[in-house]
Amino acid sequence: MIVIMRPQTTQEEINMLKQKIESENDVTVNVINGKECSILGLVGDTTKVDADKIRANEFVENVEKVQQPYKLSNRLFHPDDTVIKVKNASIGGDELAVIAGPCSVESEEQIVKIAQDVKKSGAKFLRGGAFKPRTSPYSFQGLRARGLDLLKIARQETGLPIVTEIMSADMIDKFVEDVDVIQVGARNMQNFELLKQLGKTNKPILLKRGLSATIQELLMSAEYIMSEGNENVILCERGIRTFETYTRNTLDLSAIPAIKRLSHLPVIVDPSHAAGLWWMVEPLAKAAVAVGADGLMIEVHNDPANAKCDGQQSIKPKVFEQLMNDISKIPGKTIHKACDTVNV
Ligand code: PEP
Ligand code: MN
């Protein structure tokens, strides 16, 4: 961190600030006296230094951070990609991690059938919302605890690990027991109390980017989970709000190479919530794989026209099968089908 002093600040005032910063933080301050102004260079762990507090000093012109405020998720201190193992599958390794399933669990028949279909096409995880974060309180809220039971039945039938969204900290014990990957949805990305509590578990956490969150804010939310001890965090780009209204959100493809550069954590893409249009899922999924995503999360429904939630953006199992075949031809990660391996 660098503190730029205002011109004409005296050496005495500079020394006072140097001593104040050193006494309040675990850092050493080096003073560089320039012709016009002086600069203080803070050396050490600056993650806990309050830049705004220093900025409030009347002799300070500005404070610049040279280090990122996130440490545990930062690739600088962990050059190798993190690979998160979930049962027989993994996220972040050589294989493309594909999570597929309906927006919400609706019935045993529905979730088991979709699970079987997506597994056949090469999905490695089953998704399905039991507790749904809906904009309107009058919309379908999910089957809740019954939805979790049905996901467990689908897991038993197919062996696919289950991914589902948690909405409040009081459900953590139940989710830790029942679920393989706990999803934190876009609307809860900055529910810091929830993140801290999830950090005390050792379950993989799928953290979706908030509707208007910057990449740095997403990484800081990952940091909340990791700083409590749980380093099993998977990031998910799912589109952000822009001025464009044609699509539900705008898929920020540039976030993938950006996050891969800044962090060692695996990054997946959800083209379904990004576009909000079923026919756009295929091209966006391909683009996501092409820019280096570690996986995809795709909404698949056997009867989208009658889906209780997000039917307009759900693809049918046949379309999903075709998409998986097409994606296996894109250079990069491999897709292993239930009985064969497609090399790319
Ligand atoms: C979901 O994946 O079911 C979901 C609600 O997504 P998001 O939090 O990205 O809106
Ligand atoms: Mn949905």
From TrEMBL:
**Domain DAHP synthase ferredoxin-like, residue spans:** 1-68
Q: Name one GO biological process term.
A: aromatic amino acid family biosynthetic process
Residues forming the DAHP synthetase I/KDSA domain are 83-323
Q: Which UniProt keywords apply?
A: Transferase
Please give the start and end residues of each transmembrane region. none
Give EC number(s), comma-separated. 2.5.1.54
Q: Which is an annotated Pfam family here?
A: DAHP_snth_FXD
Matching entries from InterPro entries are given as: Aldolase_TIM (IPR013785), Class-I_DAHP_synthase (IPR052899), DAHP1/KDSA (IPR006218), DAHP_snth_FXD (IPR041071), DAHP_syn_2 (IPR006268)
Q: Which GO terms describe its molecular function?
A: 3-deoxy-7-phosphoheptulonate synthase activity; aldehyde-lyase activity
Which PANTHER family would you find in this protein's record? PHOSPHO-2-DEHYDRO-3-DEOXYHEPTONATE ALDOLASE (PTHR43018), PROTEIN AROA(G) (PTHR43018:SF1)
Looking up NCBIfam families in the UniProt record yields:
DAHP_synth_Bsub (TIGR01361), PRK08673.1 (NF006421), PRK12595.1 (NF009239)
| The protein's name | Phospho-2-dehydro-3-deoxyheptonate aldolase
